[in-house]
Amino acid sequence: MSKTLISLFLVIAFALVVACVDVTPEELKAILTNVPKAKVTNYAQYMNDAMDEGDIDTCCEIAAFIAQVGHESGDLNWFVEFASGSAYEGRKDLGNTVKGDGVRYKGRGPIQITGRANYRAAGKALGVDLENNPLLAQEPVIGFKTAVWFWNTRSLNKYADCSQANFDIITKRINGGFNGKADRDAKFAKAKKVLKC
Questions:
Q1: Domains of the chain: which residue ranges?
Q2: Spatial distance between the Cα atoms of 127 and 166, rounded to a whole number of angstroms
């Protein structure tokens, strides 16, 4: 067998080992123990579909994504920011230039995209008019897609290698700091264990 064929075989074998299959509802419930039982099957499907479309497909990428989304949404229990959004009023860095934009474009979805500019960009990428219909972002089928959009526009897959140092970079890029670090880290460790990363 030539060296080229051996190299190709090793690359394919490695890809098969590293790639994960879809997360089952049972695995999702084992990682995010407080996910609503009645919704876990649908949530697993929406999440898998969004991750597949967004090329979040290695075990470490999936584990990191679930851990971060799980923390941000309280184990997929809330898809709307608790605060009114008034703190974002007039924030030009978020594209909030029209009176009422802060409340209208407050955080929604499992990663809770925020601001008119993010709603516009995510909607354009997904082919959904989120700017004129911001409440769609809190619907799980769209929300998981906005979370993957956010993840990919921040190039977070390149840090999702199962190392704690790089997971901390992901946390900082999502949160702007390290709020909820202990919970994020615990979810990441559990996800790696359940998914056998």
A1: 20-77+140-195, 86-138
A2: 31
